[in-house]
Structures are given as structure tokens and as C-alpha cells.
Design goal:
The structure is a homodimer of 499-residue chains.
Chain A lengths: L6 H28 L6 H20 L2 H10 L6 H19 L2 H24 L6 H22 L3 H9 L5 H28 L12 H15 L6 E5 L5 E4 L2 E6 L7 H19 L15 H16 L2 H15 L8 H8 L16 H16 L8 H13 L15 H4 L6 H20 L2 H7 L4 H10 L9 H9 L6 H11 L2
Parallel strand pairs in A: 1-3
Antiparallel strand pairs in A: 2-3
Helix pairs in contact in A: 1-2, 1-3, 5-6, 6-7, 8-14, 9-10, 9-12, 10-11, 11-17, 12-13, 12-18, 14-15, 17-21
Chain lengths: 499, 499
């Protein structure tokens, strides 16, 4: 008995294989970050490259064209299958739009520029990287234009769309302008109030690494992470990788301060819980993947910013921190620890920024990368434009470019169009958390006793289980009753920092 | 300017990709053994299976047939290219010979039988596994017959050839018969002499695991392992995986006894040094791989049995062991430690056997698996035949099947035809070591001061760098001046245990 596959089933089979190949790539990348000896870099790079080429060949296989056309004419598909087909079409269109030679040149230029960038950043020497960055920017622009033509998108949106499907700069810009107008005065108010409350009590280290590891693992378990289906390891850059059944998150610890490491772990745990909550029956299909970086970041910031930095959760966590490090006295009281975890300070570095000043860093980068792609800003003028923007948004002028336009890897390794997703994610997190609390008042109560199940239940149903079956905007409307905007984010900031 | 590839170059390109896919599979398997949480097993199995199917499709791609024919007509190929082509043809012929359905059925039956075997072994209950083992044996035989027809080999040789190309049972049987006749009397002599020398002085534990890890790493460095291109980890079953630039070996430790763990590490290091010494310019081609399991095992036993258990090396290592565990007194003297590491005892378990009694275990399995495949021995009669063989070869009768025919995984998971390579490897190790010492008398001297460079230099030139450019027999003749036989192995045993 032979059964003939429908065109849609044929596509599902091919994308399942593609997905497994992608998962194998993920294991290779995790291993590279966590285990690989330095001497293995070249061999690993060759393995990764071979698997990526195979993946590219599979998605651009001419045979897919007929299957896609035929499946799109199939009237029997349900909404998830239709969404799946749309996601397949989108992935293929993006892969076909850019020719392999440009992909290769951009990858090589990005790698070379990234290597140089490490040096330039260490020396705070922007000039030395200008030619290399110009090359990357030009290739990124070529790629954006190719995608733009194929997908009928604005140049910048063609890049953004790769990280956040249907993300549009024209919709983001007014929201960011509004935040940019709101935040400086708001921050002044927060700082005045913070100063009036007196100085922080310091928690002096060192903090033994093993005690930090143990605390982080136990807090991950509190939040709902299942170590039978995942791991916590250490790497230079924290990340979340793996598959739902075997999620790998990483962090880094400092003996001087346990606080950022713990919050970093809870941030990555938020990413992990999203991936673990995606619908298992769609695990190998495009529609079953996370929708995009805005929702992904919303889930990490949900855990980190909304839940774990709340007064409710810190009340639960503070005694456990004291126990982990044998701390005692007023500095170790929940109130002081909560002040540490919600301390606001204007600074130069994005990744060290608190949630009040973070959007300014993102808005600056969003504006500058759009200008550089539109030829409104020359690469050589970037440090000046950076200083001006910092002055406007944060009232600071970086003393050198290491604390300025050299601080982030994104532009140097070719990830243009990514930055706005951080702040859109923060907005989405606030809006989702507000909706969740309205729907279930036990959520904040649960946090005070380390019970995340009410929150997780709401997220599973309203976010995770939806995967990519809806657009981000549709999902936000269904989950919160309103389109994604900054209202809830502002209300969250006001409530946490000025109430 | 476009260049057209020759058929041979086209094949090299395809096998390079196949090799990288195989390396990716290796990373996934290493991770599965060393890191994967239990809940990730199903997802990992799906990833492995997808990559294996892709690999199978690449090697059986009909397009390869014409390239192989055309390349074989190419008169310009040098001997390495010709050997490469031959190895490609062999890999493809083996892949094509067995249809995908049989491969799948055997893989599933082997997995199911292996699961059951764990239980049967724990309960020492052979009966419960009989139907499952019969199914595996029948499928293995089907596979052997399919390979036999396609490759024009005897049934058993068709399986053996998968582990040791050109290995032939008809040549092995008389060598094993000769050893089987020689070893019982020889073992009696060794035991008498050993008893006359008095009892061993025990080294009482426990031995801290961290001290064992540190000792093992330092001994690996002494032997020549480069940690910039490899790692040492822990797994349930020790193995050596990875690629030359990034070799991953694993071991297991026991707090009660550090000796087996250390020797296990040196054994795997021997495997690793072989892989690291293969010619880099051929790293992605079949001709650039290890020749087969006989030479691979010869390299691990070279390091473990020939070099590391020698009186010369123990003289160097004993003070380091004392230092690692804070030992003192006569038990920690080199002479007593050397007696431990060369202690001979007839026992039931192959993996615990010393080098004098080990061949008896292998010869028993070789005879029995040939008989089972030839229908000369029914699976239900295996325990009886096992007991008879043990009595003949070692003068022992196992009290139960856990100490008998249930002890090894090989038959249950489908690896029939593998066993003889262990003892052929031991013979090859002895023969190569004897030739190396003749060629460079500084080799034993080097061992007394922990200098393995003279030995490694000879192995690199005469074994590792040859890769698969020659058959095992040709390589042995070139390296030692004689075909592989048991002469040197017997001489080694006589010199170490009776001199």
C-alpha cells in the first residue's frame, strides 16, 4: 500500500528535515561556545559552513516552487497549515532573494570586521575600523536592497523583517519618538526620588562561583525550568540555544557581584520557557517556531524585568540570596536588594543599562542605523552623531568610542536592523504582564512565594502555544485587547519607579 | 573565468561534504554521551536519524555512479588519489548493498534488544532476551548476505569488512587457533611465577576524583595530547570522538581505584593521537581516515599496553601517582605499581581482563558468532556453548549468564564481526612496538623520563601519516618488515611476564 503525499505534506516533510538540520547546527554552535578548545575553531567553522550550505540548498531547491504553488491552491488546509505555508514561503523568498556570493562576501566581511572590532574596541580606536565597517555597511545595504526588491519592503524593513516578521520602521519611529520625548523628564523624576531615599547599602563580595551556580540553578527551578530537559552552562556571551526538549542556556559569573549573573540567568530562562512552551506537534514546522525577536525578548524581559525584579519576587528571593552567600544585616534585606535591582543611572553602556534608560540606547542606534543605510550619515561621522544623540537622549557625552559607537557587536558583524526589537520586547513584556495580572490576580501573589505557575499558565496559553500562527500584532491584540504600544510600558515604569 | 571539475574532483567535493556531515554527527553523539539531559534523547535521536538519512542519500546518489566510472578511467591520478577512489567505491558499494528498509529494521531491532539486554544482564536472565536476540541475529544475517552478494565476500567477512577492510576470517581463524593452543599453558606459567613473587601490596583508597582528573590530564600531556586541540570528559562508556583538530576523549573514574581510570585514559589517548596524526591535507577524504579498527586498536594498545604498562614508563609515573594522592610506603613503589598494572588473572569479564587472558575472551566470541551466523549454533544453545568455550580456553565456568554471554553489548545491538579486531589490534601493537624499538633504541629510554617523542615520531611516520593509503597488511609489512601475525605478541608476553 503506497500513499501519495499532498504537496503540503511534501513541504512539511522537507521543512522537518530542514528543522532537524537547524537543530544540529544549534548543537554545534552551543558546543563551540561552551566546550570547544580554541584549536578546533577552523574545523568547526568548516562543519557549520557545510551544514549551512546544505540548508540553503534545501530551502532554495527549485522543486519547492511547484509544491508551494500547489499547496497554496489547496482549499482543505486549516488556519495553522495556512500560516505554516505562509512562513515557508517567507523563508524561501528571503533565501532566494540574496545570491550565494553576496551571502558569502557579507559573512566573510562580517567575520573580518568582527575580529578587527575586538581590537578597535580594546584600543578605543574607531578610525582603524572605518574601512572595514564601510565594507560591511555596503554589503548589508546590497543585501537589504535585494531583499527589498524581492519582498516589496522598504530597505530598512527588509532587514528588520528578518528578525521581526512584519516589523515596520514607519510604525516604530513615532513610538520611539514619543518615548524619547517622555523618558528624559521621567528619568529626572526617578533620579530625584531615588536620591531622596538615600544611598544603597553595598553587598561586599567576593561571592563564591559555586554558590552562585547553585543559587542560579535553584532560582531557575523556582521559575519553572526543567533540568531533565535542559542545562545551564557558562560562556563568554550568555545565550539560549537548543530545542524545547533540551534547552541550553548559558551565563557568566563575576566573583565581585552575583546580582547581574543571577538576573542574566533569569532573563535567559524566560527565553527558554518560551521555546519549551511552543506547541510540540508543530515543533519541526516554521509555524511552530517563535514568532520573532520581539516576542522572544518579551518573554525574557517578562521573567527578568516584570517578574524577577518585582518587589514581590525579591521578597521571596532575598532570604535565599542571604542563605546562598551567608549574608546578614540590613544590606541583605529584601528592600535594599530590590533597590539594587531597580537602581536607575544614566550610563554609556547599553548592556549595563536599567530598564528606564535602556530605550534611549536603542532609539539612538535605531536612528543611526537607518541614517547610515539611507546615506544620511557617513560612517566617518558616526562618532559625532553618536555623541550628539547621547547628549540629546541621556545628557551624556562618551569620553571615547569604546564607551560609544564601538560598544556593541551588531553593526560590525552585520546584524543591522536588530536593535529595535529590544525595546519593542520591553514594551510587549509590560503589556503582556499587565494583561496577565488583570486576567489572574494571583499572579503577583504567586511571585511572593516563588510560585510562577499562575503566570506561566497564562503565558503558555496566550503566547507560547500560539507560536507563529499569528503575527506579533495579532497575538498582542488577542492576548491584551490592544495593539502593541508604549502605554503599558510607561505605566509599568511609573508604577515601579514613582509610585 | 569558470573552471570545470574533473570527475575525480567532483567526487572529492561530495565526499568532503559527507565528511563534514559525519563530523557534525560526531559532535551530536559526543554531546549525547557527555552533556545531554535525559529528556533530550528523543529529539537528539531524531536529529541523528535525519543527518544519517541525508548522509545515506549522498553516498547512494545515482549521480555518483558516472563520476566513479569516469574517475576510474582517469590515468593521471596518483596512488593516494587511486586509493581514495577505491575507498569511495567501497563505501558506496556497502551503502548500496543493503536496502534502507533493512537498515531501519536492524537499527530498530538493535535498539529494542539493547534496551532489553540492560534488563536481562541486570537480572542475569538470558531466556528473556532470546526472541529479541534471534530477531537481531536474523536481520544481521540478512544484512551480511546482502553485503556478501554485493561485495563477493563470505558472509562473516562481509560484516568484519565493515570494521576492518579486507579482514578475512579464514586468515584469522588459524592465528586464533594457534593462540588458543599457546595461551593456556603460558598462562599457567605466568601465574606460577606471579605467585612465587608474593602477593600484591594494596593501595587503599578512596582516591579523590579531582586528583584523578588532574593526574589523567597531566599524563595525557606527557604522552603528547594537545589540550588546545581536544578535551577529556566523563561518560558512562569511555570513547574517543571528534576530529583531529578537536579530539574528545572520555573516561570514567572510581573513588575506590584510580588505576583502571588512568589506564583507560591512556588507551583513549592512543586512539586520539592516531586521529590527530592523520594527514591534514586528506582530512575530508576517505583515504585520509583511519584504516580500520585493527590499526585503531593497535594505537590505543600501543599507548596503554606496550608503552604505559612498561616497567620503563611506570618508573616515571609512580612518583607522580604518589604525589597526586599523597601516597607513601612500599605499596607506592614503582615495582609494586608495575605488578598491579601487569597482574594476570583468569576471569569471567573481557573488559576487566589483562593482556595475557584477553585473547581467550575474543577467540571465544569470534568462534561463537561465526557459528551462530552459520546456523551451527542456535541462540538458545548459546549459554551452554559459552560455558564449554570458557572451560576450554580459560578453565572457568561462569556462575550465571551476566558473567557469561550477557556481558557484552555487541551482539545485542547488532555489532557482529567486531570482536576479532581487539586481538588483531593487540598483535599489531606488539609487532609495531617491536619494530619501533629496533628502529630507534631511544624509545624505551624516552619512556623512563616521560618522553614519548621518539615513539610518536616513529608512529607518525610509519602508521598515522599512511592513513588508508594502504591496506592494514601492506602497512604492517612496510612498517615492520613482516605480515601481521602473533609472533611479536607472543614474544612481548614472554618478555614481560616470564623473562
Amino acid at each position: 500500500m503506497t500513499t501519495t503525499k499532498t504537496p503540503y505534506q511534501e513541504l512539511e516533510g522537507r521543512f522537518e528535515r530542514l528543522s532537524k538540520l537547524g537543530q544540529a547546527l544549534g548543537v554545534l554552535q552551543w558546543d563551540m561556545a561552551c566546550n570547544m578548545p580554541a584549536g578546533g575553531a577552523e574545523a568547526r567553522s568548516a562543519q557549520l559552513s557545510a551544514l549551512k550550505v546544505m540548508s540553503h540548498e534545501m530551502i532554495t531547491d527549485p522543486a519547492l516552487a511547484d509544491f508551494l504553488d500547489a499547496a497554496e491552491a489547496d482549499q482543505t488546509l486549516d488556519p495553522w497549515q495556512q500560516a505554516n505555508l505562509k512562513a515557508m514561503r517567507r523563508r524561501r523568498a528571503r533565501a532566494l532573494a540574496v545570491d550565494a556570493d553576496l551571502v558569502r562576501r557579507l559573512s566573510e566581511a562580517g567575520s573580518a570586521c568582527e575580529m578587527l572590532w575586538r581590537d578597535a574596541k580594546a584600543k578605543a580606536d574607531f578610525k582603524m575600523i572605518v574601512p572595514s565597517l564601510i565594507e560591511v555597511r555596503d554589503l548589508v545595504l546590497q543585501r537589504a536592497e535585494a531583499l527589498s526588491a524581492a519582498l516589496d519592503l522598504d530597505t530598512y524593513d527588509a532587514l528588520l523583517d528578518g528578525y521581526e516578521p512584519e516589523g515596520r520602521a514607519a510604525e516604530i519611529a513615532p513610538v520611539f519618538d514619543d518615548l524619547a520625548a517622555f523618558l528624559p523628564g521621567f528619568t529626572d523624576d526617578v533620579l530625584a526620588r531615588q536620591a531622596a531615599a538615600g544611598p544603597l547599602l553595598e553587598l561586599p563580595g567576593p561571592f563564591a562561583l559555586d554558590a552562585q551556580r547553585k543559587l542560579c540553578r535553584s532560582m531557575m527551578e523556582v521559575v519553572g525550568f526543567d533540568f531533565d530537559h535542559g542545562r545551564l552552562d557558562e560562556s563568554h556571551h550568555p545565550f539560549c540555544g537548543g530545542v524545547a526538549e533540551d534547552i541550553r542556556i548559558t551565563t557568566r559569573y563575576s566573583e565581585d557581584d552575583f546580582m547581574p549573573g543571577l538576573m542574566g540567568v533569569l532573563h535567559e530562562t524566560g527565553h527558554a520557557l518560551y521555546d519549551q512552551g511552543l506547541p510540540a506537534e508543530w515543533r519541526y514546522q516554521p509555524v511552530g517556531k517563535a514568532r520573532g525577536m520581539v516576542l522572544h525578548e518579551s518573554q525574557s524581559l517578562m521573567m527578568e524585568m516584570q517578574a524577577s525584579r518585582s518587589a514581590e519576587f525579591i521578597a521571596f528571593a532575598a532570604p535565599r540570596m542571604r542563605e546562598a552567600f551567608g549574608g546578614s544585616g540590613p544590606a541583605w534585606e529584601a528592600d535594599n536588594i530590590h533597590r539594587h535591582y531597580t537602581w536607575v543611572e544614566r550610563g554609556f553602556i547599553r548592556v549595563d543599562a536599567d530598564e528606564v534608560t535602556y530605550p534611549a540606547h536603542v532609539i539612538l542606534r535605531f536612528r543611526l542605523e537607518r541614517a547610515m543605510l539611507a546615506d544620511d550619515l557617513a560612517i566617518t561621522d558616526l562618532p559625532g552623531a553618536w555623541a550628539e544623540g547621547m547628549e540629546e537622549l541621556l545628557g551624556l557625552t562618551p569620553p571615547d568610542d569604546a564607551l560609544g559607537c564601538l560598544q556593541d557587536i551588531h553593526w560590525y558583524d552585520g546584524a543591522w536592523g536588530y536593535f529595535p526589537t529590544y525595546t519593542l520586547g520591553a514594551m510587549a513584556a509590560a503589556q503582556l504582564f499587565a494583561a496577565a495580572r488583570r486576567a489572574n490576580p494571583q499572579i503577583p501573589e504567586g511571585l511572593t512565594v516563588g510560585d510562577f505557575t499562575p503566570l506561566m499558565g497564562w503565558l503558555r496559553e496566550n503566547v507560547h502555544q500560539k507560536a507563529s500562527s499569528r503575527t506579533t500584532m495579532q497575538l498582542m491584540e488577542e492576548a491584551t485587547g490592544a495593539p502593541l504600544d508604549a502605554t503599558a510600558f510607561k505605566a509599568h515604569l511609573a508604577s515601579r519607579y514613582l509610585a
